[in-house]
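Each field is listed here:
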Amino acid sequence: MPTEAQEDIKQKAYAEAMRYMENAKETLRKARKEDDYYQDSKYVRTACGTAYSGVLLALDAYLQLKDVEMPKKKRRSIEFYTSNVAQLDKKLLNYVNNVYNILHLSGYYDGTNDARVVRAGFELAYQIIGKIKPVPVQESAQELPPSRPSLLRRIAMLFA
């Protein structure tokens, strides 16, 4: 797959997955958090389901970028994701398993009201979505600031 096509897939999927996460965070605010617990499990369930859907969008793009053949049917099982991710990235597999357990099972199905659990699920979701984050287009290499200025350059900056 040409790099241009890959970047296009990343751009679209990343933007859509992040939109899902923003919607999930907005819904979670309606759940009214007191101390470390949400007061309305309906909103927690909706938010977790939305965040999990964003993760699945990101995983679809990730697998597509890795040239994994996607099944014809739209609905894919967690086994499809875990078996394919297991062959590509073990660390990502841990994230997928934990997001499934936290957001999908505990959050969406059980409606957990523990904000710490939900927060952990959201953090893992962002880690997965970050795997497809597009690389920003850079004008030229000379316009980029050095990643870590040398000691002399930092001293010169102080007196400039």
User: Anything to note?
Assistant: Residues 3-29 form the longest helix (27 residues).
